[in-house]
Specification:
Elements: E1 7-12, H1 26-43, H2 48-52, E2 53-54, E3 59-60, E4 63-70, E5 79-89, E6 93-104, E7 107-119, H3 132-138
Antiparallel strand pairs: 1-5, 2-3, 4-7, 5-6, 6-7
Length: 141
């Protein structure tokens, strides 16, 4: 069951994430999504390191697909709000959804939205059922 409430973080656009015009480079937004995933997991008392590569339990949780729709530019020093949620939990993986906003004149402007899908794997990179601790962390609270 997907998580009903999104997890929210703020991100400041850094100079090194921008192009010569001061607009965040497209890949920076994907990095923001990854940060959102990390903080989502932490908010569920699960270390991102143990989620993505749990050597003790012999599983990984790599990203297998990512999509992003860019709606409005974000620029150097903008303070952004990123909302991360679980869209779908499947037998062998999960999909996260993201909404990235910038504030302009007191209004939230949707800057980007996207999804990232992850799959559970064993040490040989074969898909496996989602480990219980991941399934519990990603399920509705």
């Amino acid at each position: 069951m997907p998580s009903a409430l999104p997890h929210t973080i703020e991100i400041r656009v850094r100079f090194g994430e921008t192009d010569p015009y001061g607009v965040a480079y497209f890949a920076a937004v994907l990095d923001y999504f990854k940060r959102g995933m990390d903080e989502f997991l932490r908010s569920r008392d699960l270390s991102p390191d143990l989620a993505y590569r749990n050597r003790k339990r012999n599983y990984g949780f790599p990203i297998v697909a990512a999509t992003c729709r860019y709606r409005a530019p974000v620029r150097f020093d903008d303070l952004l709000t990123l909302r991360t949620r679980v869209v779908r939990v499947e037998r062998k993986g999960a999909t996260f959804g993201f909404s990235l906003f910038r504030t302009q004149e007191g209004m939230e402007i949707l800057a980007a939205e996207g999804r990232v899908s992850c799959r559970s794997i064993d040490a040989s990179w074969k898909t496996i059922p989602l480990p219980a601790e991941l399934k519990n962390a990603l399920s509705s609270r």
